[in-house]
Amino acid sequence: LQVLCRYQHIWNIDLRFRPAFLGGIMQATELFLKGNKPPAMLPKRAEYMLKDIKRMAKYYQVPVKISEDDFQRVLGKSSLGAMRFITAIDMTQPQYLEPLSREFWIRFWSQQEDISQPENILSVAGQAGISSEVAQKLLGIISSPAVKSRLKETTEEAIKYGAFGMPAVVAHFNGEPHLFFGSDRLELLGSVIGEKWLGPVPS
Predict the structure, then answer these.
(1) Which family is it part of (predicted)?
(2) pTM for this prediction
(3) Domain 1-193 is classified in which CATH homologous superfamily?
């Protein structure tokens, strides 16, 4: 998220955020991948990830903080309400999609706060510059059929492109979609679209 935003005006790309529900992706791909599970559920992988996330945070210059206890927090808290709120923003106030996504990310991954509660969703919206009146109105429609349908649609679209987890980036280049999974594939993304990788913090 952060690095793609840094590159959106450097590379020749039209960056579009497509809110999708990770839980739906994991559930839908579990049958096909013979038990698709989050990496943190594998003890040795979780141990490695703790070290690797610290290295990645320093390299990409993003304020992600995570401990062994946070894995259970991540797996135990639903992001469905937040993703529906982001979807409602996408449908009505798309100019806030990028700052809202970033604020949810910071709240969850840097400040270890619960983003499932309505009061926290409203607080995040305020940090993203959304007025209290608009935020309250959007919070009131997150369970509407239209918002639910839109989130389901974008989640199914991600699965159609081959997503099995997040982050997932789909690059449409020369009439063909290319799926990239993980935050460490941006250099490959640049190579495919003919753009130069200038490091995680391009000037």
Answers:
(1) Belongs to the GST superfamily. Kappa family.
(2) 0.87
(3) Glutaredoxin (3.40.30.10)
